[in-house]
Write a structure and sequence with these properties.
InterPro entries: nSTAND_NTPase5_dom (IPR057574), P-loop_NTPase (IPR027417). This protein is of the alpha/beta class and 681 residues long. Helix content is 49%, strand content 13%. The longest helix has 32 residues.
Length: 681
C-alpha cells in the first residue's frame, strides 16, 4: 500500500503525510536543526529562522516539528492559534516546555509576538529547563539586543532562508506533478521563490494549452502573491513608492523625493527598507525579484495609464540627472536609465560592483586592443581599428582590470563633423554612415555625427565589461551637445535587436571582409532625446520597443545655420506684425514648435526670452537696449533708435549688429539642444 492510498487515522495525519512527501531542499538548515536537537539534550539553544514572506519559513517549521517528534521530543507549536500577545497567554500556550521535558518550542509568525520580545529574551527563555530547543520564525531578523548581548552569542543561531537552488526548484515542481516541458516557463516567472513556485504549480490545471510549454502567470496568481507577500499598505503614497521601487533598478530617498514630490521621501524610504522582501545594495534598496515582477505586472494591468506616466516621470528624472552631472554621470545613474530601457532583455549583467575601470587608450595597449578585435571579428576590422588607433586615439575608451591593468575590452566612438576621403576609404562603415546622413538630412553648422563604431570585450556579452561599454554609449547619447545623428554598428543585428530602438530604419548592412555589420542610425535634428525616450512605452505595454521600420514624418523644419539666422532677423523686424510672423520659417522649426501654444505667440515668447537673456548680463545690456529699441518699441527708423538711446549712430549700429549675432547664437543653441538642453547648460 502506497502513502497515497493507505488509510489515515485523521485528516491531520493525511495532510502531514502530503507535506512530508512534497518537502524539498533546505538540507543545510535541516542538518543544523538535527545537530542542534542532539546537542540540546544536555544544553540549550534558540534558532531564529528569518526571511521574506513566502520563502518557506512555515514549511520548514513543520518539518522541524516532524523531525523533533521522530526524535522522541515533545513538540510545542505556537503561531496558528495566535493568542493575545501577553506574557500570560504565551506562557499558557507554552506550559509543556516546563512540564514535559525535553521539549521543542516552535513559534511561527514571531512578528505577532514582537511586543513580547524583551520579556521572552530576558524573562521567559532563561527559565526554560536544560535540554530545551526553541525556534522562532519571523520575516525580520532578531533585534539588536539579541546580537549585542554576549550571553546569547553561543546560544542563538540565526538561519536566513533564501530562494531555492534551481535543482531544488525543479524538485518542487516535479513533486507537484508539473510537466517538465513547463518547468522553464514557471522558473522564469518564479525563480527559486517557494511560494511563487507553489502558486504556479497550483495554477497549472487552469493554464491554457494542456501539456504545452507555454505558460504565464494569471492575474489571480499575481494577486495571490501580492496578498501573501506584501499585504495592505498604509496609504496610496506608500503604494506608489512600492510601485516605483518595483519598476526601477534600485530606490533611494532622493529618487522618491524627485518623483513623489508631495510625499515625505524620508519616511517612505524608511518604510520601504523595513519591508522583509527589500534588500540593501550599494546603490540603494530593491525588492525581491519575484515581488518586483508581481508588483510591476499588477500595476501595468490594473492601471496602464498610471503605469506609463510613472515610467515617463522616471525617464525624465534619470535623463535630467545624467545631463546635469557636474562631471560624467556615475555608473549608478546610467544603470538606472539602462534598466528602464532594457530590463528583462538579458543584455546586462546587472551587478553592483565591478573589477574593471574605464580609461583612455595608453602606449602599450595596441596589441591588446587588436587581440580583442581579432578574437571577436576579422583581420579587416583589426586593420580598421589599427587605423583609428593611429588617427584618433582619443576616440577609444579602454576597460581595464582593476587588478592587473590589462585591457578587457574597449569601445570606439567617433565624433565626425565632415566626410574625410581617407577615412571613408579605410572604413566602409563610416562611408556608409556618411552616405545615409547626407542623403537624408545633412549636418548643419555646429552639429556632428556620433558613431559607436566598435564595442568589444574579451568576455561574451552580457558581462561586467559590456555593462560599462553600454554606460559609455548612453553617456554619448544623453550628454552629447550638438549631435545631429547617432549611429551604432552591431556585428549581429538579430542578437542586438533591442538596440534597434535607436535606429529609425532597418539596419543598413555593410560588409567588412567576410562579415556583415548592421548600422542603426537616428536623426536628432527633429526630436530631443529625452522627449523621444518618454514616448517609448515601458516593457509591459503592447507597443514596448517596437522600433519604426521606416523614417517617421518630420516633426520640425530643419534649417541650415544661414537660413536660421536670416529667419531670426526677419522675425525681429516683424515683431509688431503678427501676419508676417505667422509666415516666419521659424514657426515650424524646433525652437518654436516645441514651445507649444499658438504659433505667433510661441515665436514672440521665444524671441522675448532670448532677448531678455542679454539684459541679465551686465556686459550685454547695451546690446539688449539696441535690440529692444529697434524692434520692440515701434521705433520708426534706426536713426531714431540711436537718438532715443543717446548714442552716436556708429556706436548704435555696432551694438545692434553684435546684439543680433548674440540672439542668433542663443537661439541656434536652443534649436540644436532643445529647451531642456539649454536650461541644463
Amino acid at each position: 500500500m502506497t502513502p497515497q492510498t493507505r488509510r489515515f487515522a485523521s485528516l491531520g495525519e493525511r495532510l502531514q503525510a502530503a507535506r512530508h512527501r512534497s518537502f524539498v531542499g533546505r538540507s543545510a538548515e535541516l542538518e543544523l536543526f538535527r545537530t542542534t536537537l542532539d546537542r540540546a539534550a544536555d544544553s540549550f539553544a534558540v534558532q531564529f529562522v528569518t526571511g521574506p514572506g513566502g520563502i518557506g519559513k512555515t514549511t520548514l517549521l513543520r518539518r522541524f516539528a516532524h523531525e523533533a517528534a521522530e526524535a522522541g521530543r515533545v513538540v510545542v507549536e505556537i503561531g496558528e492559534h495566535r493568542p493575545p500577545p501577553s506574557p500570560e497567554a504565551f506562557e499558557s500556550e507554552a506550559i509543556k516546555m516546563f512540564t514535559d521535558e525535553p521539549a521543542v518550542l516552535l513559534v511561527d509568525d514571531f512578528e505577532t509576538y514582537r511586543p513580547l520580545e524583551d520579556w521572552l529574551r530576558d524573562r521567559f527563555l532563561p527559565r526554560l529547563p536544560a535540554g530545551s530547543l526553541v525556534v522562532f520564525a519571523d520575516r525580520r531578523p532578531p533585534g539588536s539586543m539579541w546580537l549585542s548581548d554576549p550571553g546569547w552569542k553561543d546560544v542563538l543561531q540565526v538561519i536566513t532562508l533564501g530562494d531555492f537552488s534551481r535543482d531544488d526548484a525543479v524538485a518542487l515542481l516535479t513533486a507537484r506533478e508539473v510537466p517538465a516541458v513547463r518547468h522553464p516557463a514557471v522558473l522564469s516567472f518564479s525563480g527559486g521563490h517557494p511560494l511563487a513556485l507553489s502558486l504556479a504549480a497550483s495554477a497549472m490545471d487552469d493554464a491554457a494549452g494542456g501539456e504545452g510549454a507555454g505558460w504565464t502567470p494569471s492575474h489571480d496568481v499575481i494577486g495571490a502573491l501580492l496578498t501573501r507577500l506584501v499585504g495592505p499598505v498604509p496609504s496610496p503614497l506608500h503604494r506608489q513608492a512600492l510601485e516605483v521601487s518595483a519598476h526601477v533598478r534600485t530606490t533611494t530617498e532622493g529618487l522618491l523625493r524627485a518623483v513623489l514630490s508631495e510625499a515625505d521621501a524620508g519616511a517612505l524610504f524608511d518604510w520601504l527598507r523595513r519591508l522583509s522582501f527589500m534588500a540593501s545594495v550599494p546603490s540603494g534598496i530593491r525588492p525581491h525579484e519575484v515581488i518586483r515582477e508581481a508588483l510591476d505586472a499588477d500595476l501595468s494591468w490594473r492601471d496602464p495609464e498610471r503605469y506609463q506616466d510613472m515610467h515617463r516621470r522616471l525617464i525624465r528624472h534619470y535623463v535630467g540627472e545624467a545631463r546635469t552631472a557636474p562631471d560624467s554621470p556615475s555608473f549608478a545613474q546610467l544603470e538606472a536609465l539602462m534598466y528602464l530601457l532594457w530590463h528583462g532583455s538579458g543584455l546586462f549583467a546587472e551587478q553592483e560592483e565591478f573589477d574593471f575601470r574605464e580609461d583612455v587608450v595608453r602606449a602599450g595597449d595596441r596589441r591588446a586592443v587588436l587581440d580583442i578585435t581579432l578574437a571577436n571579428s576579422n583581420a579587416e576590422t583589426a586593420a580598421i581599428v589599427d587605423f583609428w588607433l593611429e588617427r584618433r586615439p582619443e576616440a577609444f575608451s579602454v576597460y581595464r582590470s582593476s587588478e592587473s591593468g590589462e585591457p578587457a575590452g574597449f569601445v570606439l566612438t567617433l565624433r565626425l563633423t565632415e566626410p574625410d576621403a581617407e577615412e571613408n576609404a579605410v572604413d566602409p562603415v563610416v562611408a556608409e554612415a556618411w552616405s545615409y546622413v547626407r542623403r537624408v538630412s545633412p549636418l548643419r553648422e555646429g552639429e556632428h555625427l556620433a558613431l559607436a563604431r566598435l564595442m568589444l570585450a574579451r568576455e561574451a556579452f552580457p558581462s561586467p565589461v559590456s555593462d560599462l561599454i553600454a554606460a559609455r554609449l548612453v553617456t554619448m547619447a544623453v550628454q552629447a551637445e550638438g549631435v545631429a545623428w547617432t549611429c551604432m554598428v552591431v556585428s549581429d543585428p538579430k542578437r542586438w535587436q533591442r538596440f534597434a530602438i535607436f535606429g529609425e530604419q532597418d539596419p543598413l548592412m555593410v560588409r567588412v571582409g567576410d562579415l556583415l555589420f548592421g548600422l542603426f542610425c537616428r536623426n536628432w535634428q527633429e526630436t530631443r532625446l529625452d522627449t523621444w525616450l518618454e514616448q517609448l512605452m515601458p516593457r509591459r505595454t503592447p507597443a514596448a520597443w517596437r522600433a519604426p521600420r521606416h523614417r517617421a514624418v518630420r516633426t520640425y523644419a530643419v534649417l541650415s545655420r544661414a537660413e536660421f539666422d536670416v529667419a531670426v532677423r526677419g522675425a525681429l523686424r516683424s515683431w509688431n506684425r503678427p501676419d508676417e510672423l505667422a509666415n516666419s520659417p521659424l514657426v515650424p522649426a524646433r525652437v518654436v514648435a516645441e514651445t507649444g501654444g499658438e504659433p505667433v505667440e510661441a515665436l514672440r515668447r521665444v524671441l522675448h526670452e532670448t532677448v531678455e537673456k542679454l539684459a541679465a548680463d551686465s556686459r550685454e545690456v547695451k546690446l539688449y537696449r539696441a535690440i529692444t529699441m529697434t524692434f520692440m518699441q515701434n521705433t520708426p527708423t534706426q536713426q531714431a533708435a540711436a537718438e532715443r538711446l543717446g548714442l552716436p549712430f556708429s556706436t548704435y549700429r555696432r551694438h545692434l549688429t553684435r546684439g543680433l549675432e548674440r540672439v542668433c547664437e542663443l537661439l541656434w543653441h536652443r534649436e540644436l539642444l532643445g529647451v531642456s538642453g539649454v536650461d541644463a547648460s
